Amino acid sequence: MLAKLSDLIRALEDDEIVPYFQPIVDLRSGALRGYEVLARWMHPHDGLILPMNFIGVAEDNGLIGELTNQVLRKAFKETRELGLTPRLAVNISPRQMRYTSLPLQIRNSAEEQGFPLDKLTIEITESALIGNIEQATQIANALKDLGCRLSLDDFGTGYSSLAHLQALPFDQLKIDRSFVASIATRRESRKIVAAILGLGHSLDLVNLAEGVEEDAQAEILLRLGCELAQGWRYGKPMPSQAMPHAEAAEPHS
Ligand code: C2E
Ligand code: CA
Ligand code: CA
Ligand code: CA
Question: Helix H segments across the chain?
């Protein structure tokens, strides 16, 4: 159910929006390469609430900057308190790619919590770039100057334009779950993923397949040359206390 604005404002004040961490692994070896940070709302009465119920509300009411900041800070703080410095990938809303203060905000949060910016990956979706390519490029370059990596999220859905891949300094390409879901059952999906991987490789991007649930999917992705994977097969999003106490190795570069 969609969150009420007043409830969300209260939740942000009461620290109820927290980061969960989903493992990202090397497809070949299975080694941990980092985590994607995903927001969760721990509601005192309703329990755990998923982002689809509150991210849009935050975006529509000017709260997404504050929400992102809180999630980011807590992710840095919680991993530091565990003695871990894994690579972390965070989601930035399309709307945030219109604020030139974004890189500074991210730098401040990282410095405050002692998190190294070269271990941070920023995931942006293509819709962030629509009608906004100049400003988005400026922000993307500033993020790169801080040492962050840039990942193009949900690639292949909705707004795909190859011009975006050319305009922004991406390091990584995330193949949308919708293609992965049918990769073992549909020849078309397999061919599309093969084509995306070919494109990614020729542009020197690291490819990450999201939503990998089954062995058969992982085997096909490996055979097609995909480097990284994320999905229930490797681990669901979890609170920091559940993270394995081994340091994530340096990721693919
Ligand atoms: P996303 O960035 O595409 O994140 C991946 C989503 O796929 C997550 O959903 C994750 O839990 C889910 N997922 C991962 N592996 C599997 C799998 O094997 N099978 C299936 N069926 N699902 C899998 P989640 O956590 O519900 O997040 C949904 C979306 O909300 C995210 O999609 C992202 O766009 C947005 N979001 C989440 N956290 C934040 C945040 O802190 N800030 C912003 N701006 N957006 C966020
Ligand atoms: Ca993402
Ligand atoms: Ca995604
Ligand atoms: Ca998605």
Answer: 5-13, 55-60, 64-81, 102-113, 133-145, 162-167, 177-181, 187-202, 215-223
The answer, yes or no, to whether ipTM is higher than 0.90 is yes
SS3 150: strand
Cα of 158 vs its chain's centroid, Å: 18
Tell which atom from ligand 1 comes closest to the C-alpha of 123. Answer: 2
The CA 106 to ligand 3 mean position distance, Å, reads: 20
In a 10 Å sphere around its CB, with 0-12 CB exposed, 13-18 middle and 19+ buried, how is residue 48 labelled? exposed
Residue 204 to residues 113, 140, 198, 210, Cα–Cα distance (Å): 32, 18, 10, 19
pTM greater than 0.90? yes
Three-class secondary structure assignment of 111-126: HHHCCCHHHEEEEEEH
Distance CA 144, CA 189 (A): 32
How far, in Å, is the centroid of ligand 2 from the Cα of 153?
6
CB of 213 closer than 6 A to ligand 1? yes
The pLDDT tens digits for 155-196 are 888 665 677 788 899 999 999 999 999 999 999 999 999 999
Distance 247 CA to ligand 1 centre (A): 23
Q: Residue of the nearest CA to atom 25 in ligand 1? A: 38
At residue 20, φ and ψ (nearest 5 deg) are -110, 160
Any ligand 1 atom below 6 A from CB of 49:
no
